[in-house]
Amino acid sequence: DLFGVSMVVPLMNHHIKSLGASHTVAGIIGSLYGIMQLFSSTFVGCWSDIVGRRYSLLACILLSALGYFLLGTSTTVYLFAISRVPVGIFKHTLSISKALLSDLVSERDRPLVMGRFNAASGVGFILGPVVGGYLTELEDGFYRTSFICASIFLLNAGLVWMLPWSEENTGNREHQQGKKETGSFSAKADGDLRLKSAANGAVANDSLFQSSWIQAATVLKRIKEIACSDLWDIFLVRLLMSVAILLYYSNFSLALEERFGVKPLFTGYLLSYSSALGVLAGCLLGPITRLYQHNTYRILLHSSTFTCTLILLYASALSIWMVILSSTFLAFSTTIGRTCIIDLELTIGGNEASGTLLGVGQSVTSVGRIVAPLLSGIAQEFSPCGPPSLGVALALVAILIMNANKQKYCSRGNVKLKNK
Length: 420
Prior knowledge:
The chain is mainly α. It contains 19 helices and no strands. The longest helix has 30 residues, at 320-349. The protein is globular, with a radius of gyration of 22 Å. It is a multi-pass membrane protein. Residues 1-407 form the Major facilitator superfamily (MFS) profile domain. Its main location: membrane. InterPro entries: MFS (IPR011701), MFS_dom (IPR020846), MFS_trans_sf (IPR036259), Sugar_transporter_CS (IPR005829), Tet-R_TetA/multi-R_MdtG-like (IPR001958).
């Protein structure tokens, strides 16, 4: 997935400008994609809880493939914009895959498996730009790259279809979790299961309109439940840490050039080096969780504190070697922190609505991607070190929130919804 996407994404700005679009039009199209992702991730994640991971994952993969196929035929700015619509709405394959993994593995093994999943994603993201850069040198290189990306998504759809799905195992896990976590996210589990059964029966027996109506009603019901839950602080921590890290990277190349006279080529090597270390960090999550006796809260608190310290080190760096040092360890702390915040969401929110929780988390991250460039631009007016300094302040607020809610994080699966 990410190998195909990372072949295309770095080339898109160059392609849309070659079609005659201005910088403003290119920015608007990019922003519209982000806004579509922001609003669709929660709905698609909740929809995957209702119709099942297999069919929602297949639908998202196939519609994303359609988007990249249209991108490969985009000879005008209008066609380019149209091609981004199905991808903006349905490119949530990674979130649904994470929800599927959370269904299949035990809570104890989840950080380890998520770490390996992130490592595999990181490998794809490292290799993709290299292959895409080579292909774009050929005649009609962008179009070929887009078609190859669409073909990779079709291959993924075939792999998903061929996987040995076991509904019985999933059902047993849901039943056991319903017993263990009666006070978790799905406080009205019986009602949800009846609605889910009704939806499944409608798919089999009733009209398509009726089944779609039941699914839509269930989606809205679950979103309403999460809006009334006590999970706001976890999502706020995720937002603050996401913005802090985005501020660190926002003017990275320009700031290094202004502060240390470093060329963009060296910055590119440094970012690739950090990505490779992030893959290694994903593989090390197993030993780390065992060292912490599977206490996700402590790992998240310590990794967030370490991230805050490293961003501060970068903001006050006096030489390029301090920047390299901070980048080295930041690759580990951010990878571990991202995995732990997802695990904490699923642990406290309950695993029965993992798709919804991951969807909301993705929406929160999308808000960070929208807010961070604005904050970065304002902070850069004062100093090249302004964005990372602001990131340090936001990370400190996140750490204080985690400390203030320590009791809730440590009592696993005790977040209750406010019953109406």
